[in-house]
């Protein structure tokens, strides 16, 4: 689209990359917009990276800061092809050639609230859900399932993480596929539609999850470039 070409051209003519020791007005503005899209008035932080897999790696890494390592993911889920995100991806053909992968993952049937409740314990760091599964053939999570996931994670002190790399940024008719449910996750990962073809990903954290990373615990070379 001409507006995107113009914006990119004007920006790269002035400043295209900065060290991640620094910030830029564009980075701050986008972070504030994303937090507002997730929930107006939210207190949170945004970590910018280059891809959806990188955003999911950051979220998985952050989940370890709970002091727990168990993660519950969905059957037929797809979260990326890096080693950490691959460990959450259900499809055996993607995973098995590269095993052993990071462990501690339990898969439950997508949309099964009872199975989810049975799998989550006080040792669970996070539950990761695609509100709309794309790789599996466009499976839509019900409002009831997402709300049940929110209750279950809250009861056990686990993080609720929505992977909206494929479904976010207006691709389903609302800014987020999870928006119609009214459920607010602790972690949200975005990419693809966020950049309109340009390489950008984001991990959005709200509440306590937003302050779990200490300075220097995670980083990226090109994330957050103006």
General description of the model:
- The chain contains seven helices and nine strands, in the order H-H-E-H-E-H-H-E-H-E-E-E-H-E-E-E.
- The protein is α/β, with parallel strands linked by helices.
- A hairpin with a 5-residue loop joins strand 5 (about 130-135) and strand 6 (about 140).
- About 40% of the residues are buried.
List the topology elements.
Layout: H1 2-12, H2 25-38, E1 44-49, H3 52-63, E2 70-74, H4 83-88, H5 92-95, E3 105-108, H6 113-119, E4 124-129, E5 132-133, E6 139-140, H7 143-156, E7 159-163, E8 187-190, E9 201-206
Parallel strand pairs: 2-3, 2-4, 4-7, 7-8
Antiparallel strand pairs: 1-9, 5-6, 8-9
| Total beta strand runs | 9
Order of helices and strands: HHEHEHHEHEEEHEEE
Structural class: alpha/beta
Main β sheet profile? 7 strands, mixed
What is the terminal separation in angstroms?
Answer: 19 Å
Q: What is the CA-based Rg, rounded?
A: 17 Å
Shape: globular
Helix-residue proportion: 25-40%
**Residue runs with pLDDT of under 50 for 5 or more positions:** none
Q: How much strand content do the residues show?
A: 15-25%
How many helical stretches? 7
Give, in spatial order, the strands making up the sheet with the most strands.
Answer: 1-9-8-7-4-2-3
Provide the residue-averaged pLDDT.
95
């Amino acid at each position: 689209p001409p507006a995107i070409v113009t914006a990119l051209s004007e920006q790269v003519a002035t400043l295209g990359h900065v060290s991640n020791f620094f910030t830029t007005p564009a980075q701050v503005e986008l972070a504030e917009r994303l937090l507002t899209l997730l929930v107006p008035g939210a207190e949170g932080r945004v970590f910018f990276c280059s891809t959806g897999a990188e955003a999911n790696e950051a979220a998985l890494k952050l989940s370890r800061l709970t002091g727990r390592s168990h993660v519950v993911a969905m059957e037929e889920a797809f979260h990326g092809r890096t080693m950490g995100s691959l460990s959450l991806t259900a499809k055996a053909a993607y995973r098995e050639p590269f095993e052993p992968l990071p462990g501690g993952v339990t898969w439950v049937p997508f949309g099964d609230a009872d199975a989810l409740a049975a799998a989550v314990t006080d040792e669970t760091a996070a539950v990761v859900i695609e509100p709309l599964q794309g790789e599996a053939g466009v499976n839509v999570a019900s409002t009831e399932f997402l709300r049940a996931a929110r209750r279950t994670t809250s009861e056990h002190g686990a993080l609720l993480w929505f992977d909206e790399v494929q479904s976010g940024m207006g691709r389903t008719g609302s800014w987020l596929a999870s928006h119609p449910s009214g459920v607010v996750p602790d972690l949200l990962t975005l990419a693809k539609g966020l950049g309109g073809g340009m390489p950008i990903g984001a991990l959005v954290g709200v509440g306590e999850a937003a302050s779990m990373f200490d300075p220097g615990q995670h980083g990226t070379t090109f994330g957050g470039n103006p």
